[in-house]
From TrEMBL, chain A:
UniProt family annotation: Belongs to the GatC family.
Keywords: ATP-binding, Ligase, Nucleotide-binding, Protein biosynthesis
The protein's name in its UniProt record: Aspartyl/glutamyl-tRNA(Asn/Gln) amidotransferase subunit C
Reactions catalysed according to its record: L-aspartyl-tRNA(Asn) + L-glutamine + ATP + H2O = L-asparaginyl-tRNA(Asn) + L-glutamate + ADP + phosphate + 2 H(+); L-glutamyl-tRNA(Gln) + L-glutamine + ATP + H2O = L-glutaminyl-tRNA(Gln) + L-glutamate + ADP + phosphate + H(+)
Enzyme Commission (EC) number: 6.3.5.-
Function of the protein: Allows the formation of correctly charged Asn-tRNA(Asn) or Gln-tRNA(Gln) through the transamidation of misacylated Asp-tRNA(Asn) or Glu-tRNA(Gln) in organisms which lack either or both of asparaginyl-tRNA or glutaminyl-tRNA synthetases. The reaction takes place in the presence of glutamine and ATP through an activated phospho-Asp-tRNA(Asn) or phospho-Glu-tRNA(Gln).
Keyword Transmembrane helix applies: no
Pfam families assigned: GatC (PF02686)
InterPro entries in alphabetical order: Asp/Glu-ADT_sf_sub_c (IPR036113), GatC (IPR003837)
Enzyme type, top EC level: ligase
HAMAP family per the UniProt record, alphabetical: GatC (MF_00122)
Record note on quaternary structure: Heterotrimer of A, B and C subunits.
TrEMBL record, chain B:
Domain called Amidase: residue spans: 24-466
Protein name: Glutamyl-tRNA(Gln) amidotransferase subunit A
Keyword Hydrolase applies: no
Family: Belongs to the amidase family. GatA subfamily.
Catalytic center residues: K79, S154, S178
Top-level taxon: Bacteria
Catalytic activity: L-glutamyl-tRNA(Gln) + L-glutamine + ATP + H2O = L-glutaminyl-tRNA(Gln) + L-glutamate + ADP + phosphate + H(+)
Summary of subunit composition and partner proteins: Heterotrimer of A, B and C subunits.
The entry's keywords: ATP-binding, Ligase, Nucleotide-binding, Protein biosynthesis
Nucleotide-binding found in the keyword field: yes
TrEMBL record, chain C:
The protein's name: Aspartyl/glutamyl-tRNA(Asn/Gln) amidotransferase subunit B
Pfam annotation, one family: GatB_Yqey
Keyword Transferase: no
Organism, scientific name: Bariatricus massiliensis
UniProt gene name: gatB
The enzyme's E.C. designation: 6.3.5.-
Length: 97, 504, 476
């Protein structure tokens, strides 16, 4: 095991991921991540110097829409799944403290 | 005649010839689901009412001559990560356990336009993250061949449904092998098309650059017909390619004379079960006997596909799954304090362990200071893998490989060791990284009676070669491995072709 | 304060583009409207929904880049910026980090002191967030996604500005350019133009930059000026006390005239950017650039020269009018219609600006048509109404865009040119004011004023004051 994940790192990543983790979950998350990172580190065996990172497999480009309004008012459908709503809006805990 | 013993295309023909009504077809499958699904758990949702209503409509359209295609009236099971308007779509997650989409995924809509009837939504690994269908919030799906074993995953519900005669045809999605691997475990045929062939609009994203929807059926002809219907240019998906060569059923010819087939040595080394290896080599000999030129070659980058995949897929997943936050749809926790508390509790309670594991990994590899070392490194590896395949396809038409290193493992065996589960995708993952098409077809069983699947891989947009080779294999083996008999409570597949149907 | 300090300011300006639809879906961008009426699966972040790029957004962004002397990135792409907030339905914003559409540009600004170039570091396309409304009644927030997915360009300057005055000059310059291009209406109050201020201070003469803060929530030029002054003083005080400036984002409260740090432990400010897999790269050909360049309109500097030459306007008038594209268009149309450019200019420079200021509105909000302004000029020039009536009518034109001809007719506001009627009134006024008449005759010129006033009053303002003057003198 060469990768060591600290408590701080797990806490930090949990903030980024917005996940509440129990102490036990944190411990197992640390172990899982350490193992995975060790495995991922095998990529370092590869010389990728000068290789352009590939995000899309195909050279497709310039896929556009024209600027024409096509959508009707669908607020009822869009709001139908909201856990809480009020005044035709999604209701959330207050955002400005 | 037992309707369930017909393949999708055969059933479609009988419906068009008025030998079977759409309602009879739908009822036959609903009856089978009722009989067996309590044990198999292929389905999260069975839409009895909707399917019967739709059957009437489709019948009308067939009678009026408006629907004439091969799939008109054919029941289809849809993986539960494809949105279906007004029909629960859960991704097998507590997070979406009450989500009713306001729209239908383009892939499903294409099938419906062709007259297929959605009978239900199939179980899967939660958010398609897993290789056994055990991470589902709705409990694991069982392998119809042996219910102590997993069906594979993540499209385990769709593959099990087809294998258990609960549906003649199903839709799956494949991000790292999620169609091909469970197809192998369940003894059915599944195609992962070239990236961009089937619209991803309405497919709940896991790894957007890798995800692709594809058909699962009992034989190659069914898969070809379904893929032909699924493949269409969709303006709603920017990564969807406009293809003209989608006459896949036209490729159903048993002629592979001179076809160059390469077998990567690295796929047959350590980790591959001996019995699986034997079946695959036997299948290779069958193809060679049909005139294909089969030889071995080196595919050096194989060991790097899985680590590159887990970086890319987890990174994309961590972002794709950020939208599940309890604000717009799905689960919202109770008893939180303030906004971020709501987010964290909702996500902690709504997601299962495997999903959280990947979200954590994905968030980490993208985080400040690690992006270059992990994410860019993985994208560079992907470029190398793609380049390696480009070279291979200069020499070969098809790559032949196992779909998985073993037959279906026992329930619970993989859950305790995620790394082991990840390794079961070793033969399928690089195909997704390079955007290639792949097919899995049954080539026999191991000594425990569990199916073995062979994977054929072609260059991008060369699905027709895959279909031709797979179909040639089916013909050369007299459809010996095609499940054609429905008897007993689920099914059995008697080698030696179809027999008279007998149901209990 | 013992030392001399220099303020170093860079700006991040967000501008909403004037497209009909959102950047990634076919929902309307129309402002206002009931909550969530312009939403769809894409802009509410539904599972499975996918973005498709609006071509017009790329063209507008290119136009903005070219007009600010930027280099267009001919292979550009989108990235995801990941952060959780309810106004951001996907909890990531589709933006551009690695290959923004335009880079390395500049605009020239002019202040009382000098002309200078403010360099533009880069310009990128991104989607706007929804709107959060605080609900006091239930102490919760309500989310409206009508603005979610409205296209934005963010224009990031180099830290080239040194004062609030320069900042305002830069913003006005940007606004003028973008309005001329028709790329945005750039209304600060409606939020279609927003500026975040990056500010640091350093000892005069130093070449090192100090630690900067970023200030948000600046909704007017005045707020920007106040915030710059406030933050400058705050940082200087810290430095004078030997305390460090913390690099952070602060929220300006214009009522309290103070900024507050926005950070919490839940905002890690680690956006985990990565290439957006759902969108394809954008390849911009030389031909496409040439096409966009060819569509460029006549800009302000060109207009100023032309107005001086063609319409014989003073430079000052030309500058003020051309500050706003809307006003310049209105001017040109009205001048064309009535053939009196200087008169039109006077109405715009005088009454129009006064009423805009009084109503706290911007020139882009001018509510009346060039036709009605032209008619008003014609009525005045023809002597049909006098200047005080004209002002009264103009207020109506400004408020309701009334047709002045019709309005004057309906309200009987035409100047009375009937000498007989006027003489009758004047004779009455003279008869009724013997003292004033005596005063005037005794050499008190002032007394005439009161007589004129009384006559005008009796005529209900509809007489020509010059004529009244003349006739009064005659009659006395």
């Amino acid at each position: 095991m060469t990768n060591k994940i600290s408590d701080e790192t797990i806490d930090y990543v949990a903030v980024l991921a917005k996940l509440e983790l129990s102490e036990a979950e944190k411990e197992s998350a640390k172990a899982d991540m350490e193992r995975m990172l060790d495995y991922i580190d095998t990529l370092n065996e590869l010389d990728t110097e000068g290789i352009v990172p590939m995000s899309h497999v195909f050279p497709i480009s310039n896929v556009f829409r024209e600027d024409v309004v096509k959508n009707d008012d669908r607020h009822e459908e869009m709001l139908a799944n909201a856990p809480e709503q009020k005044e035709q809006s999604y209701k959330v805990p207050k955002t400005i403290v | 005649m037992d309707i369930r013993s017909l393949t999708a295309v055969e059933l479609g023909r009988k419906i068009r010839q008025k030998e079977v009504t759409v309602k009879e077809a739908v009822e036959a499958y609903l009856t089978q689901i009722e009989a067996v699904d309590s044990e198999i758990n292929s389905f999260v949702t069975v839409d009895r009412e909707g399917a019967l209503k739709r059957a009437e409509e489709v019948q009308r359209h067939i009678d009026q001559g408006m629907l004439t295609g091969p799939l008109a009236g054919v029941p289809v099971a849809v993986k539960d990560n494809l949105c279906t308007k007004d029909l629960l779509t859960t991704c097998a997650s507590k997070m979406l356990s009450d989500f009713i989409p306001p729209y239908t995924a383009e892939a499903v809509a294409n099938l419906e336009r062709a007259g297929a009837v959605v009978i239900g939504k199939t179980n899967m690994d939660e958010f398609a993250m897993g290789s056994t269908s055990e991470t589902s919030w709705y409990g694991p799906t069982k392998n119809p061949w042996n219910t102590e074993h997993v069906p594979g995953g993540s499209s385990g519900g769709s593959c099990a449904a087809v294998a258990a005669f609960e549906a003649p045809l199903a839709l799956g999605s494949d991000t790292g092998g999620s169609i091909r691997q469970p197809s192998a475990y369940c003894g059915v045929v599944g195609i992962k098309p070239t990236y961009g062939t089937v619209s991803r609009y309405g497919l709940i994203a896991y790894g957007s650059s890798l995800d692709q929807v594809g058909p699962i059926a009992r034989d190659v002809a069914d898969c070809a017909a379904a893929l032909q219907t699924l493949a269409s240019h969709d303006e709603k998906d920017s990564t969807c390619v406009e293809r003209k060569d989608t006459d896949f059923t036209g490729a159903l010819t048993a002629d592979i004379k001179g076809m160059r087939i390469g077998i990567p040595k690295e796929y047959f080394g350590e980790g591959l079960d001996e019995e699986v290896k034997a079946r695959i080599m036997e299948a290779a000999r069958t193809l060679a006997a049909q005139g294909a030129v089969v030889e071995e070659f080196d595919l050096a980058l194989v060991p790097y596909a899985i680590p590159a995949y887990y970086v890319i897929a987890s990174a994309e997943a961590s972002s794709n799954l950020a939208r599940f936050d309890g604000v717009k749809y799905g689960y919202r926790a109770q008893g939180y304090e303030e906004l971020h508390g709501m987010y964290k509790t909702t996500r902690a309670e709504g997601f299962g362990a495997e999903v959280k594991r990947r979200i954590m990994l994905g968030s980490f590899v993208l985080s400040s200071g690690y992006y270059d070392a992990y994410y860019l490194k993985a994208l560079r590896t992907k470029a190398l893998i793609k380049a390696e395949f480009d070279k291979v396809f200069e020499r070969y038409d098809i790559i032949l490989a196992p779909a998985a290193p073993t037959t279906a493992p026992k329930l619970g065996a993989s859950l305790s060791d995620p790394m082991k589960m990840y390794l079961s995708d070793i033969y399928t993952i690089s195909v997704n990284l390079a955007g290639l098409p792949g097919i899995s077809i049954p080539v026999g069983k191991d000594s425990r009676g569990l199916p073995v699947g062979m994977q054929l891989i072609a260059n991008c947009f060369a699905e027709k070669k895959l279909i031709r080779a797979a179909y040639s294999f089916e013909c050369a083996t007299n459809r010996r491995y095609v499940a054609g008999v429905c008897s007993g409570r689920f099914q059995t597949q008697e080698e030696g072709g179809k027999q008279d149907v007998e149901t209990v | 304060m013992s030392k001399q300090y220099e303020t170093v300011i860079g700006l991040e300006v967000h501008v909403e583009l004037a497209t009909k639809t959102k950047i990634f879906c076919s929902c309307s961008t129309e402002f206002g409207g009931k909550a969530n009426t312009h939403t769809c699966p894409v802009c509410t972040g539904m599972p499975g929904a996918l973005p498709v790029l609006n071509r017009q957004v790329v063209e507008y962004a290119m136009a903005a880049g070219l007009a600010t002397n930027c280099k267009i990135t001919q292979r550009c792409k989108f990235d995801r910026k990941n952060y959780f907030y309810p106004d951001n339905p996907q909890n990531y914003q589709i933006s551009q980090l690695y290959l923004p559409i335009a880079r390395d540009g500049y605009v020239e600004i002019e202040t009382d002191r000098q002309k200078k170039k403010v360099r533009i570091h880069e310009m990128h396309m991104e989607e706007d967030a929804g709107k959060l409304v605080h609900d006091e009644w239930e102490d919760c927030s309500l989310v409206d996604y009508n603005r979610s997915g409205v296209p934005l360009i963010e224009i990031v300057s180099e830290p080239d500005m040194r004062s609030a005055e320069e900042v305002i000059a830069y913003l006005e310059k940007l606004r003028t350019i973008l309005q001329y291009l028709g790329v945005s209406d750039c209304k600060l109050q409606e939020g279609s133009m927003r500026a975040d201020v990056n500010l640091s201070v350093r000892e005069a003469g130093s070449t090192e930059f100090g630690t900067r803060t970023e200030m948000k929530n600046l909704n007017s030029f005045k707020a920007i000026s106040r915030a710059i002054e406030g933050e400058r003083m705050r940082q200087i005080e810290l430095l004078e006390e030997g305390k460090p400036v913390v690099q952070e984002t602060r929220r300006w409260d214009d009522n309290k005239e103070y900024s507050y740090p926005m950070r919490s432990k839940e905002d890690a400010q680690d956006y985990r950017y990565f290439p957006e897999p759902d969108l394809t790269p954008i390849i911009i050909s030389d031909e496409w650039i040439a096409e966009v360049k060819a569509k460029e309109p006549e800009f302000q500097t060109e207009k100023i020269s032309r107005y001086q030459e063609e319409y014989k306007l003073p430079r000052y008038d030309a500058e003020i009018i051309t500050n706003s594209k809307k006003m310049a268009d209105l001017f040109e149309q009205a001048a064309e219609l009535c053939g009196q450019p200087k008169k039109v200019s006077n109405w715009l420079m005088g009454e129009t600006m006064r009423l805009l200021n009084e109503n706290n509105r911007e020139p882009e909000d001018i509510p009346f048509s060039p036709e009605n302004l032209a008619k008003l000029v014609n009525l005045t020039e023809a002597g049909i109404i006098n200047s005080s009536v004209a002002k009264e009518v103009f207020e109506k034109v400004f408020a309701e865009d009334v047709d002045p001809e019709q309005y004057v007719e309906e309200h009987g506001l035409k100047t009375v040119n009937d000498e007989g009627a006027l003489r009758e009134v004047i004779e009455k006024v003279i008869a009724g004011n013997p003292q004033a008449v005596a005063d005037y005759k005794g050499g008190k010129e002032k007394a005439l004023g009161s007589l004129v006033g009384q006559t005008m009053k009796a005529m209900k303002g509809k007489a020509d004051p010059a004529m009244v003057n003349e006739m009064l003198k005659q009659c006395m």
